[in-house]
Input
Amino acid sequence: MQLFLELEIVYIVIGIFILSVTAFVTTRDFMPKGAFKKGMIAVGVVVSLMVGFHYSITVKRMNGVEELFNAGETIICENKMQRTISKSVLLSQSLGWRLEDHLFKHDDYIRDFHTSRCVDWKGSDVFQEENQTK
Output
């Protein structure tokens, strides 16, 4: 439950806002009788399905990333401070990174990376050749 709230709290808040707007609109005088009930049920179901679907996909990707990392593969994580791909960070066990409770940690690195912000990385041959010659 803690992981669900950690990953989805923002989307739950957005869903509550959408439900609030739905409640406001469907209670206006110009709306037909029963609009509130129908609107809240329909929007509630859609929002719930979207949050559940997002959670399911995120957890599946996290598990895949964790499995690849534990198998010794390289992972690329988004640097939240600078959101460009060139500023992302490559992580692997061979570089000293470890996985603790869905977080990638390194003793020499200030920031931890949540596995939900990471994907597996298939480097280009040029990049791999550059790193092998160094």
User: Anything to note?
Assistant: The longest strand covers residues 75-77.
